[in-house]
Specification:
Order of helices and strands of chain A: HHHHHHHHH
Structural class of chain A: mainly alpha
Distance between the termini of chain A: 58 Å
CATH architecture of the domain at 56-187 in chain A: Orthogonal Bundle
Largest sheet of chain A: none
CATH class of the domain at 56-187 in chain A: Mainly Alpha
Oligomer: homodimer
Number of helices of chain A: 9
Radius of gyration of chain A: 18 Å
CATH topology of the domain at 56-187 in chain A: Tetracycline Repressor, domain 2
Largest interface: A-B, 34 and 34 residues
Shape of chain A: elongated
CATH superfamily of the domain at 56-187 in chain A: Tetracycline Repressor, domain 2
DNA sequence: CATTCACACTAGCGCTTGCTTGGTTGAATG
DNA sequence: CATTCAACCAAGCAAGCGCTAGTGTGAATG
């Protein structure tokens, strides 16, 4: 069994697992289905993962780590104005959500299937990500770009963005960036949409 | 087996099932757990419901029907201004979401576990509800209360509201009505929060 | 050339699952 | 008082579940 997530084989298996978990749900995805999708027999699966739970944890960990990296990167390379940072954060959020879609859908829907230890570990990652949001929201509040309670605003914004996985059509006319900008415009006083 | 949802016994069983589905998730809730919670044996369950799927459908149907009733009622009894109707709709949404919480959490999380027929039937109910929202949003757009695309705005608003089931604490200081008003204020140009 | 190692296989154990079957109640109905 | 009927129970079947044990590879390592 591999301990690190780093093994390239394991990373590929994790990606496949994410896809199946989205299609069928975690509980309905059997180890035999996972194995078949991976082109191996069900027993061989446990060479890469201790148990089924660990596959779920690997999927969610991957997704959340990617989200953190992309968000930090976006914030680092953008303008330092509150508006620019707000736009960058919203765009980064949708970018991860919609490109790394499978992993995030799993994280949103199957979080409760994690056992206590995995949940504790992954909570830290998620908290780090949410802290980024609250930071950016704080700056927007300070500049009067948006109004309201910092906690509430960040929850509302993340809710609106996360909900997109339910209805957004990548084949449609709107790009994720446009979507993000529209949301920011909606909660921002100065912007206008003719 | 009862065909109608109307049997009082069945309604009570549905309520209990909703609670268990929230605690454990649909797939992890066994018919034996359901039966025990209901104070009967597992076999007796199938006198009330054709199969496990039908219990899930009953839970979601109940919740969605209630949401429709409450929303229509709220719209009927409120002022006819776009602002009043927007507030009423948001408040109604959170009221159902948080009082009939179990059923709605199940609807949000376990929708995909429904089979094709049940999903088709319940989709109509849900569409009727969402149509109410788009109507109210349309009026708000027409009066210049909010700006943007009708489709996008309604999705963003519903996302922000539905997301509350993940973090809202009924024991906390904020009432659902305050929450709803805060969200409306956030997307509304004229309001201000000192 | 011997050893190790990652990776895969076969076979199946022990348990739980949703659901069925056939029968028993106790109250309401004609 | 015979009949009906919703509601329940006891017992269990067939299928599927996660996971384990033991073994076989071919490539890399010493």
């Amino acid at each position: 069994m591999n301990v690190m997530n780093a093994s390239p084989r394991r990373k590929e298996l994790t990606r496949l697992a994410a896809q199946l978990f989205v299609q069928e749900g975690f509980d309905r995805t059997t180890v035999r289905m996972l194995a078949q999708e991976m082109g191996i027999k069900s027993g061989s699966l446990f060479h890469h993962f201790r148990d089924k739970q660990e596959i779920l944890a690997a999927v969610i960990e991957e997704g959340t780590e990617n989200a953190l990296i992309i968000a930090r990167d976006a914030l680092a390379r953008c303008d330092s104005s509150a508006s620019a940072r707000l736009h960058a954060m919203a765009r980064a959020h949708l970018e991860t959500l919609l490109t790394d879609r499978n992993a995030h859908v799993v994280a949103l829907y199957e979080w409760r299937r994690l056992d206590t230890e995995a949940r504790a570990h992954l909570s830290h990652l998620r908290d780090a990500y949410e802290a980024l949001w609250e930071e950016v929201i704080d700056e927007a509040l300070a500049e009067g770009l948006v109004h309201g309670d910092r906690f509430l605003v960040s929850r509302f914004v993340m809710g609106a963005l996360n909900w997109t996985v339910r209805w957004y059509d990548p084949e449609g006319t709107r790009t994720p960036d446009e979507l993000a900008d529209e949301l920011v415009a909606m909660i921002t006083r100065s912007a206008s949409t003719p």
